[in-house]
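User: Please check token order:
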Amino acid sequence: METGRRRRRVFTLASLALGVLLAASIGGFIWFVGEMPTAVRDTERPTDAIVVLTGGSGRLTAGLELLAAEKAEKLFVSGVYHSVEVDELLRLARNAPQELACCIVLGYDADDTRGNATETADWMAAQNYDSLRLVTAVYHMPRSLLEFRRRLPDAEILPHPVFPEGFRRDDWWAWPRSFGLAVSEYVKYLAALARGPFGG
């Protein structure tokens, strides 16, 4: 009888712990999705630099448009493949004006978001810059801000989300691709958070 009671007690405690963990995960996910921007909140304020994170459609075009509008002195593109040059990027961006080439800097060292933040922090320090407009996909923005604020704690960072056609921001839960992207980014965000306040 005693053994049976212990088993029931252990089962009850395990079920309770699992329920709390599940509730916390769901609550955290809902919070995370709420942290995804719904729009670009500040389109006018200039910064020292515009930083584009490679890896998704529309990011480079948005960055070049901001540079053409003189919203920053330079555009830094982080996470570029080693064989890619500025002229090729301009061609890929639907023949963006060649005169922008002088103000574009490519970063080749980053392989992930953490690397983007480190690479950008090193470049910002070399340029003596202390403000940037961060351009990346809306679903990628919470994790990007987490990593960038760790590496650039004293810098002003303006989020400038891009809204890819493949991601439905307002009704993500009704679209399998959007739901999958949101879940994937949430898991990656938790992994980044688990590294501690300084990112390991």
About this structure: The chain has one domain: 49-194. The chain has six helices and five strands. The radius of gyration is 21 Å.
